[in-house]
Amino acid sequence: EEEQDERIYKTYEQLILTLPDSTKYLPPFSSSSMTKFHQHLRCYHGFWFRPEFVLLGAMAAQDHFVPRSSDILICTPPKVGTTWLKALAFATLNRNDQPCRQSLLLSHNPHICVPSLEYNLYGERRLPELTAVPSPRLLSTHIPYQLFPSSWVSSGFKIVYLCRNPKDTFVSYWHFINKITGEESYHDSLDDVFNSFLKGVHLAGPLWDHVLGYWNASLVNPHNVLFMRYEELKSDPFVRLRRLAEFMQCPFSEEEERQGVLEKILDMCSLESMRNLDVNKNGHTIKHSFKFKNDAFFRKGKVGDWVNFLTPEMAERLDQLMEQKLHNCGLSF
Ligand code: A3P
């Protein structure tokens, strides 16, 4: 089996070598000839990925993941609050077996509790065995909706999509890629990463196409796609958490409301509580040559933090670009 998996992954590897490489695609940058992090992205059906394991994993997932109608997929572009949404969904779905004081979230990073198809499950060069996982399976992905195979689209699984103001998403992204450490560390200038972002060349980018794919899916199929925003989660946590629970078909009862179950979940999943857990202060996620420090997932969590990093001209450029790309689709930021 191991050999068979190795053959499968080798095929993807070879395919990846034929895909457009960002190094040739991007214009020269100010400080270096290219931001280090974006140097080796590959373009797959119009979206940019890190090839070594993310794209391998995405390709393997496309071909081998067999969804169930009961699956719940947390779908996001990077840096929009994925970690938070994973924690909220996990805590809510498992609240009977794991009340907050016994939650797995106290000892495991949310990205372990809710594994990603392309990073964790299919990114390890071995096809995972997911049939024994009891329903409902709670999984996640950054894979754009446009890249979903038709078998996924028709499976009837539920999608919770989260997005965020693009300027805050970008600022969070820039901090993140300079903070994660693997074999290399990055010191990419804000200007360089910004120029790359405007070209759509960043993890799972272009951002506008990522958002549009899921937005359109939510219009076509509102029962199966819940479209949420980070800002709404921040401003109306109770309302959004209730909605999330209903959508996952485990609504909070009146009794639970009276007992303060929602407060407990929101409190356990708050940025302050999560960041202070030992596992999130000192641990690593994704056992791979490319590992992330858990503390890189927790920064400020502020709406509008972009004003501290982008000039008005940069903000205007990104706003205009998003407006132009999302023109007439009923979605704005
Ligand atoms: P900032 O960099 O703006 O602070 P992702 O989880 O998709 O990687 O997104 C990370 C962003 O979500 C970071 O934003 C991070 O601080 C914020 N975040 C992480 N955990 C959070 C939580 N429990 N509550 C609110 N925001 C959170």
From TrEMBL:
It is an enzyme of class 2 (transferase). Gene3D superfamilies: P-loop containing nucleotide triphosphate hydrolases (3.40.50.300). The keyword Transferase applies. Keywords: Transferase. The keyword Repeat does not apply. SUPFAM superfamilies: P-loop containing nucleoside triphosphate hydrolases. Residues 70-330 form the Sulfotransferase domain. Its EC number is 2.8.2.-. It comes from the Eukaryota. Pfam families: Sulfotransfer_1. GO terms for molecular function: sulfotransferase activity. PANTHER family: SULFOTRANSFERASE SULT (PTHR11783). Belongs to the sulfotransferase 1 family. This is Sulfotransferase. It comes from Dioscorea zingiberensis.
